[in-house]
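Sat 14:20. Reprocessing the chain from the morning session after the first attempt stalled halfway. Input below, unchanged.
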Amino acid sequence: MSPLFLILGMPGGSEWLLIFFAVLLLFGGKKIPELMRGVGRGIREFNDARNKVSTEIEEGVNNKEKKELEKTN
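Finished this time. Tokens:
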């Protein structure tokens, strides 16, 4: 874990409000839904990739176990 993260910590309630208002000022009310859709797509793609990698690893382990069982029989 980064030492900077340990020093700064997570933002509290008032900091989140300040961040929200800064985003509102920078992007405007009409751009925020587009921004959130983009964030949602990014999170969905990340989760899909993570699940795909996890599935491939599990399949690789299962195939290796099957090959080892076939060799012993």
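Residues 3-72 form one domain.
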